[in-house]
Structure prediction request, 363 residues.
Amino acid sequence: MTEPILEVEHLKVDFHTDEGTVHAVDDVSLTLTAGEVLAVVGESGSGKTVTAMALLGLNRSPNAVFGGRAMYQDTDLIAASDAQLRKIRGAEIAMIFQDPMTSLNPVQRIGKQIAEQIQAHENLSDGETHDRVVALMERVGIPRAAERARAYPHEFSGGMRQRVMIALALSCSPSVLIADEPTTALDVTIQAQILERLNELKAETNAAIILVTHDLGVVADIADRIAVMYGGRIVEQGTIDEIFYDPQHPYTWGLLGSITRIDRDRGERLPSIAGLPPSLLAPPQGCHFRARCPHEFAKCTEVPDLADRGAGHPDRCWLSTDDKRARREVAPGEIGLATKPDVDGHRADVDAGSVQAAEVGDA
Prediction:
C-alpha cells in the first residue's frame, strides 16, 4: 500500500456566533495518497468547503475552534503556525477556489497574479517567472498565452478564468491540489473540459487531488474514491464503484437519484430528498439525516459510527447491509422503497411514491 500523503483524523471545526456554536465539521477523517482523486460530495452546508479551508488555515479566526489533526508529511496542519502554513500554502498544497471572478484581483493583470505566487516561493528572475507564467497558461489550454497574460480577469470568460485558477494553483507544482467546486456556474461542455484538464494534470504531475462538489455526476469519470458528507459528518466513504453500485447510506441514495440518466426514458420527475438540511447550531440527536430519512427507526437517535457493516466500505447508518440492499430498490425502473420501520423497529407499509430513496442501477 502507498503511504498516505495526507491523513486527516477526527477533524472538528466549530464557530462561536451570537446565536450559538455552529458545529460545521464533526469528526471527519480522510486519507489521500499521491496520484489519487478523492471527491468530497454533499449539498451546500454539509461542511465540505470548511473542511478544505481548515487544511490550509484559511478559516482561522478568533471565533473558530479546531480539533483533531491533519498530518501532511511531518506537519500537523491544524496545529501549524501561520508562518509554517504560508510556506506550505501554494507551494505544497494549493487550492482552486469556487468562484474565480471573486478570487482573482480585478485590478491586476492575470500574469502578474500568477507571477506573484511563484516569486513568493521560488527565487526566480522576472524573465524566468514570465516564461513560467506563459508555459503554465499554455499548459491549461489558454490560447495566445503570452498576450493573454497581460489581460485583466474581466476580459476572460468563466471557463478561461477557471483555467487561470488552475494555472495559479499549479504554479509551484504542489503535491496536493484542492479543487473547491471548480465547475460551478459553468456550462456542461466547459465542465467536461475543466475535469479533463484536471485529470491530465494529475497524470502529468502525480499530484493528489481533493475535489469538492455537490454533484456525484461530475466525479464519475475522475474520482478514485468518494466521501459523502452530510450535516458536518462523512456518512459514507468508498471507491467509485462501491458508491455508485453498492451505496449504503440513504442520503447517498438521494444524491444518486438526483442524477439524470440518459439510459432511461423520460418519465416522472427526478426524486428529491424531503425536508431541509439540519441547522448545525442545533443538529438532530443521533444521525443527522434521520429527520429526512424515510427509514428512520428507534436506534437512529444514537450517533452512528463510520464503520464497515459488511458492505466492504464504511457508512453511518444503523440498518444492516442486507436490509439496505433490500430497501434501496423495489424493482428496476422504480424509485424508492415500500416499507419503513416504525418506532419499535418493525416494518410498516407506506406509500412507495412518498419515499425519497433513489434507485441506483441494478445493484
In short: The chain has two domains: 6-223, 229-354.
